[in-house]
Amino acid sequence: MLVLLGAAAYLYLNLFALPCTPYLLGGDQVYFWLDAQHMLYGQRIYQDFLEFTPPGTDLFYFSLFKLFGFRIWVANAAVLALGVAFCWICFSLAIGLMRRNSALLATALFLILVYGKALNATHHWFSVLAVMGAVRVSFTRLNLRTAVLSGAILGLASFFNQTHGAAGLFAFAVFLLWRRSHLKSSWTDLLRNEAGLLFSFVFALLVLNAHLIATVGLRQIGYFQVTYVTTYVVNLSQGSLLGLPKPLSWQTLPALTPYLAVYISLPAVYLLTLWRCLREQFNSSFPWDRTALLAMVGLSFLAEVSLSLNWLRLYAVSLPGIVLLIVTLDQATKLRRYVFAFIWIAVIGLAVRQSIITHRSQSLRASLPGGATALAPQAYEKLQWIMQHTTPGEFFFQAGWPGMYLPLQLRNPLYLNTAYAARPQDAEQAVQQLRAARVPFILWTEHLDSKCDPGRPCNDGIAPIRDYLHRSYVRVRTFPDGDTLWQRTAAHP
């Protein structure tokens, strides 16, 4: 209980300005807030607005906003609750592998180094939490009953993120096969457990998606969750090298050190742990089942996110590696005391630094249609100006990033959530929807005006939207970050 209270207190300090003003969050979670808003107005996923992930996260936020209102504090409370749930599952798994003080360190390390850095409650985090719940169910005893229950929870994980759930299922299936060899059990027991795992996984997915299957159809769901993703979304890495938040150089190395520590330690600890499981598989004092299962799940996660790697995705799947890292250090008896003391000092220092930076960088408070909030000066100027020229419930299009809709209670009338159009028909449809809704303002982002190289083929999918903007709107405001606000002219339909 004290672990959860401590986690909640730390998260509260990084999500709310004292006494109770929520910070305005960003990150990819804003897409799911926008999807939930669409659903609050009766719009349908995969039909009335673009979505290429399973509906679990959209439905989660929709339920919260339906119960408590489309408010800023609700989104922050969701991030806090998710973080506390992760800390509970982390401590629960860690206590099964190491002493209590070491389990506490593993939980603190995950909370502050990983979750506290992201504070981004997307589908990745919800899905990984469910996978770790499946691991927890089978952690101390794996039989047909726990295999069936774990399979159902893995189906729930796939309802939030299709690939994390599948990666967890694969890891469980391989672990069961390895476990049969380890225990010298019968093939009949193996097939029974594998069948129970797979059947419950599929059954859970069908039940959770039953309404969508009936209203949208399997073909449409499969297109957006598989074909659209593999065709338009997935790439080997996003942004800079390995998906790091900044380009790697001597100048950026100090800031990137915590990220690189995670990048390097995860594959190393998984390989070291699996090697130890092979070496110690006949040692009765070694918790082989629990260690091997956690390592298999972690390695499966790592292989899966490497197909489209960035630091946020890697952080979201890092919990097994954090636990196993502390397990490895806990068993190094000669160095454990000094290493753990160093880690505690680093973790506490990082926690204090993160909290101070959050409070200093978001020092202004504003009363917005989405509720009171604390935010950075640059965001304050933009939100205040747009708030004074719009009305809650009004149509508005933020072309580069959908972060204005929740705080200003504005609506996006488009099928697209931003101006990025992967398919040519999406850009043309966006122009038609902008014209039909007579959207009074468009917030345009500077990078959307990047020009194509005349000497090379250009696949500029947003050209129709940009052309319509320049034909039918006039620039009325340029903000310090380069974003420009355009107002519709009365002369154009």
Report what the structure shows.
This protein has 493 residues and is an alpha+beta fold. The chain has two domains: 2-356, no CATH class; 376-488. 62% of the residues lie in helices and 6% in strands. The strands form three sheets. Strands 5-6-8-7 form a four-stranded mixed beta sheet. A two-stranded antiparallel ribbon has the order 1-2. The protein has a two-stranded antiparallel sheet with strand order 3-4. The chain is globular. The mean pLDDT is 90.
Task: Describe what is shown at a glance.
The protein folds into 2 domains: 2-356, no CATH class; 376-488.
Topology record:
Elements: H1 2-15, E1 16-17, E2 21-22, H2 29-40, H3 56-68, H4 72-94, H5 100-118, H6 123-137, H7 144-160, H8 162-183, H9 187-208, H10 210-215, H11 218-233, H12 253-279, H13 288-305, H14 311-316, H15 319-330, H16 336-361, E3 364-368, E4 371-375, H17 377-388, E5 397-398, H18 405-408, H19 424-437, E6 441-444, H20 463-472, E7 473-478, E8 484-488
Parallel strand pairs: 5-6
Antiparallel strand pairs: 1-2, 3-4, 6-8, 7-8
Keywords:
single chain, 493 residues, alpha+beta, 2 domains, 4-stranded mixed β-sheet, two-stranded antiparallel ribbon, 20 helices, globular
- How many strands? 8
What is the typical, i.e. mean, pLDDT?
A: 90
Q: What does the overall shape look like? A: globular
How would you write the strand order of the largest sheet? Answer: 5-6-8-7
What's the total helix number? 20
Please bin the fraction of helical residues.
Answer: 55-70%
Q: What structural class do the secondary elements suggest?
A: alpha+beta
SSE succession:
HEEHHHHHHHHHHHHHHHEEHEHHEHEE
Low-confidence stretches: none
Radius of gyration: 24 Å
Q: Mind summarizing the main beta sheet?
A: 4 strands, mixed
The portion of residues forming beta strands comes to: 5-15%
The total tally of domains equals: 2
**Alpha carbon gap, first and last residue:** 61 Å
